């Protein structure tokens, strides 16, 4: 077989190729791989550090979120309390205003009733005086004489009683 006969020529070439490859690997392992491995190790370390930092930031963000939610809940509770107190205060003010207004209305009504009663009594007194003068004058004209004080008093009282009874019946 002619193909296998040429292997004798390639044997030294193969030997030197293996030696060259071994030297090349040794040089790579000695000089090239350590910086590459160091760079890979540094990169791995940096990635681990970044991952740990990201996890720490995530935990811190969760804590901040929980704190914020707690503060928000507290603020909402305070706002609800403030609104409740404001509504209660408004209700109290409204009740006080209504009570004050009712008291003023009652006082105005009492004052009006008192004024009406005073005016009525004054009017009745004036009517009584006027009736007594008219009664005495008309009686003196009818009788054509002057009446005694007792007669005047009796006639005035009778006339007043009659007028008052007529007023009460008409009212």
From TrEMBL:
InterPro entries attached to this UniProt entry: ATP_synth_b/b'su_bac/chlpt, ATP_synth_F0_bsu_bac, ATP_synthase_B_chain
Coiled coil: 37-78
Keywords linked to the UniProt accession: ATP synthesis, Cell membrane, CF(0), Coiled coil, Hydrogen ion transport, Ion transport, Membrane, Transmembrane, Transmembrane helix, Transport
Pfam family, one: ATP-synt_B
PANTHER family named among the record's database cross-references: ATP SYNTHASE SUBUNIT B, ATP SYNTHASE SUBUNIT B', CHLOROPLASTIC
Functional summary from the UniProt entry: F(1)F(0) ATP synthase produces ATP from ADP in the presence of a proton or sodium gradient. F-type ATPases consist of two structural domains, F(1) containing the extramembraneous catalytic core and F(0) containing the membrane proton channel, linked together by a central stalk and a peripheral stalk. During catalysis, ATP synthesis in the catalytic domain of F(1) is coupled via a rotary mechanism of the central stalk subunits to proton translocation.
This protein's name: ATP synthase subunit b
């Amino acid at each position: 077989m002619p193909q296998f006969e040429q292997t004798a020529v390639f044997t030294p070439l193969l030997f030197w190729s293996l030696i060259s490859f071994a030297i090349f690997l040794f040089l790579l392992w000695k000089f090239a791989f350590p910086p590459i491995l160091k760079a890979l190790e540094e990169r791995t370390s940096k990635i681990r550090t970044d991952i740990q930092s990201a996890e720490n930031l995530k935990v811190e963000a969760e804590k901040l979120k929980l704190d914020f939610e707690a503060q928000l809940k507290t603020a909402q509770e305070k706002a609800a309390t403030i609104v409740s107190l404001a509504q209660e205060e408004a209700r109290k003010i409204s009740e006080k205003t209504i009570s004050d207004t009712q008291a003023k209305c009652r006082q105005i009504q009492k004052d009006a009733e008192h004024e009406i009663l005073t005016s009525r009594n004054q009017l009745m007194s004036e009517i009584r005086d006027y009736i007594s003068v008219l009664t005495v004058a008309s009686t003196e004209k009818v009788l054509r004489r002057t009446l005694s004080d007792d007669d005047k008093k009796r006639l005035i009282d009778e006339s007043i009683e009659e007028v008052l009874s007529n007023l009460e019946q008409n009212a």
